[in-house]
Amino acid sequence: MKQEQLDRLQAIQDEQFEALSLKQMDHLQALETEKTRLLHGLGDLKGLTPEQQQQLKACLDRQTELERVCTEIRDALGDQLKQEMHRQKAVQAYKDSGY
Predict the structure, then answer these.
(1) Phi, psi values for residue 48, rounded to 5°
(2) Can you list the alpha helix ranges (DSSP code H) found in the chain?
C-alpha cells in the first residue's frame, strides 16, 4: 500500500510540472490537494523500507524544485502586475493633464 502511495506521489509531481507548463492552475491545485492527502496517509518514516524512504526523499527534493518554479512564476506575475498598474497610472495621469 505504501509503495502504491509513493508511486502515485511521483506521478502527481509529473502531472504538476506538466500542469504548470500548461498554466492549468486549477488542475495544479487539485493535484496539490491529492498529494497532501497521500503524504498524510504515508505516516512516519518508520513504516517505510529503506528503498521507500529513499523514494520519499527524492519526492521531497523534487517538491522543493516545484516550489522554486512556482515562486519564480509568482514573482514574475507580480512584477508584470506592478508594471501594468504603473502604466495605467501614467496613462490616466496623461489623460487627466488634458493632453
Answers:
(1) -105, 145
(2) 2-21, 25-42, 50-96
d(CA 42, CA 9): 10
Does pTM surpass 0.85? no
Are the beta carbons of 73 and 50 closer than 8 angstroms?
Answer: no
90 pLDDT higher than 90: yes
Mean pLDDT of all residues in the chain?
A: 89
9, 57 Cβ separation under 8 angstroms: no
Grid cell 488542475 is found at: 27
- Helix 50-96 with 2-21: angle, nearest 10 deg: 20
Q: How many residues does the chain have?
A: 99
Instruction: State how far Cα 47 lies from the chain centre.
Output: 27
How far apart CA 15 and CA 8 sit, in angstroms, is 10
